[in-house]
Every structure is written in structure tokens, then in C-alpha cells.
Design a protein that fits this description.
Layout lengths: L5 H8 L3 H11 L5 E2 L5 E2 L2 H15 L4 H4 L4 H12 L5 H14 L2 H15 L1 H21 L5 H22 L9 E5 L8 H12 L3 E4 L6 H11 L3 E5 L6 H14 L4 E5 L14 E3 L3 H8 L1
Parallel strand pairs: 3-4, 3-5, 5-6, 6-7
Antiparallel strand pairs: 1-2
Helix pairs in contact: 3-5, 3-6, 6-7, 6-8, 7-8, 8-9, 9-10
Length: 291
């Protein structure tokens, strides 16, 4: 069982620490453990309770009324709320709860209902991507563990693979050719898969090489297929001082191809871009490039 500080709960739920203390004192709605020095500590059940309360509060429920609910009634109301047409932040909150609970059925229900309402692409852009950003914050602050992160990203990966397969039926023989890969040591595949979906949804040809690709193998595939574009994501595999040389190497090795780059290592960094290189700051930049 994980242990959370009051700042962890604030970051996860969006409820200020001051407000959480008031709820504890005024409504006895949550009862954290305390250390010998009176520092509050919360467990998994406390975290889920606060997330559920936050969702109800954001949808018009008064905290005084919420405090009177049994846990069963509270969870029942949360499910009712998330089944309605909610805002994007509410859906992100619901996905966070599904992740913390390892609840695949709930994940499936949330994603399916949003795809039906908004379409796959908008669900990814407005719900899944902000949710993944939240996971990133929670990961670096040790608020979620590897099992939770792997659980939810693998479910998202499965959705993307199914959607990409649907796009294969609509490829144009004369569409542009895109080669997608991750460099050696890079395993964060969700962004690359979504780029695959975005590109193939517009009837372009995708050559997908996936994770951890040695540079020499990239050159072999390039020589065979001569793609119009090469797309890659630089997130964590290269040290800071190796990013610029890698970008320069890509541009020099494939001078007749447009190189598209994204990821934490290049977005918002002081990267010099050769003439055949472009940094994709956000997914809408890729969509505009395709247009």
C-alpha cells in the first residue's frame, strides 16, 4: 500500500491542502494517519476518496452533503456522474481513478463512451494526452508506481493499435511515405503510436519501426523505402549534450527527407534545426504539417 503526503493529494485531486485540512476538521470526511511529529499521511483508500469527492464537488455537489454519504452511495454517484456528458477534466479524473484501482472495465467504459461522443482523435487529444501528462507528473513525484503506469499505458497502447489497423484500409497508393521510429534506448511508444494513427488516418503510408532502433538499421530501411518524412520522439534516451549531435546526424544522413522531431528533449529546448528538420511542439503542429 502506498503512502501519500497532503501535497500528493493536492497534486492528484486539484484540491488545495488548506481545503483538505478544513474537510478533515469540519466534516471528518477523511482521517489521515499522523506521525510522531504530527505530519499527515494518507493511504490508497484516502486518495481514492478525495478523488471521488473532488469529482462530485466539481459537478455541483456540496461538501456538506457529500460528507453524509456512505462509501457505497458516494461511489455510486461518481459512476453516475462519469457516465454523463462531462467536461474533459472530469474524464481525466475518472481515468486517474481507473488507473489507481487497476480497473480495466472502468477504463474501457470511459474510453468507449468518449470515442462515441468525440471520435477517437479528439478523445486522444483532449483526454488521453492530458491524462498522460498527469501520469508523467505523478511518476516523477513518485505518486504512482510502475505497475499503475504500465497498466494504463498498455491499455491505451491496445486502443491505438486497433485504431491504426482500421486506418490501413484507407491508405492511398500515392500518399506521402512516413518512416516512424524511436532511437536506441527509447521505449516510450505512445506518442509514436499516436503519430502513426494521425498520419495513417489521412491516408498516408506509414513504415513503423517502433522502439529502440539502432541508427544503422534506420539507414537500411531508409535506403529501401526512401520515405518523404522521418518522424521520431526524443524523450529520455539521450543525455542533454547528445541531443544536438543526434539531430545533426539525422539531418546530414537523410538530406533529401523532411525530419520531424518531438519529445521533451527537443520541444522548448535550444535546439538548432537544420534546413530539413522541423520540431513538432504539439500534436496540432503535426496535423497542420499533414494538411
Amino acid at each position: 500500500m502506498s503512502t501519500y503526503s497532503i501535497k500528493d493529494l493536492e497534486q492528484l485531486s486539484g484540491i488545495k491542502a488548506h481545503t483538505l485540512r478544513i474537510w478533515e476538521q469540519r466534516y471528518a470526511i477523511i482521517a489521515p494517519q499522523r506521525s510522531d511529529t504530527n505530519i499527515r499521511a494518507y493511504d490508497d483508500q484516502d486518495l481514492k476518496l478525495v478523488l471521488n469527492i473532488a469529482m462530485l464537488k466539481d459537478n455541483g455537489y456540496k461538501i456538506s452533503d457529500i460528507s453524509k454519504l456512505s462509501l457505497d452511495d458516494l461511489y455510486s454517484k461518481v459512476i453516475t456522474v462519469t457516465d454523463k456528458q462531462l467536461s474533459y477534466p472530469d474524464q481525466i479524473q475518472a481515468l486517474t481513478l481507473a488507473m489507481l484501482d487497476f480497473n480495466e472495465d472502468r477504463f474501457e467504459q470511459i474510453i468507449t463512451s468518449n470515442i462515441q461522443r468525440f471520435g477517437f482523435e479528439n478523445t486522444m487529444i483532449h483526454i488521453i494526452y492530458p491524462f498522460l501528462n498527469r501520469i508523467g507528473v505523478l511518476w516523477v513525484t513518485d505518486t504512482v508506481g510502475p505497475a499503475q503506469e504500465h497498466f494504463i499505458t498498455n491499455l491505451i497502447r491496445q486502443k491505438l493499435i486497433v485504431a491504426i489497423e482500421e486506418n490501413r484500409r484507407n491508405q492511398r497508393a500515392n500518399g506521402d511515405k512516413y518512416l516512424l521510429f524511436l532511437p536506441e534506448g527509447e521505449y516510450h511508444e505512445i506518442s509514436l503510436l499516436f503519430a502513426n494513427y494521425i498520419i495513417s488516418a489521412r491516408s498516408n503510408k506509414v513504415i513503423y519501426l517502433g522502439q529502440n532502433l539502432p541508427f544503422n538499421e534506420l539507414k537500411l530501411v531508409y535506403e529501401r523505402h526512401k520515405p518523404d518524412y522521418i518522424f521520431t520522439v526524443l524523450t529520455s534516451s539521450l543525455s542533454n549534450h547528445n541531443v544536438q549531435p543526434y539531430v545533426n546526424r539525422l539531418a546530414a544522413t537523410f538530406p533529401d527527407t523532411q525530419i520531424l522531431l518531438t519529445g521533451y528533449q527537443v520541444v522548448g529546448q535550444d535546439i538548432d534545426t537544420p534546413d530539413n528538420t522541423k520540431i513538432i511542439n504539439q500534436i496540432n503542429d503535426l496535423i497542420r504539417t499533414l494538411s
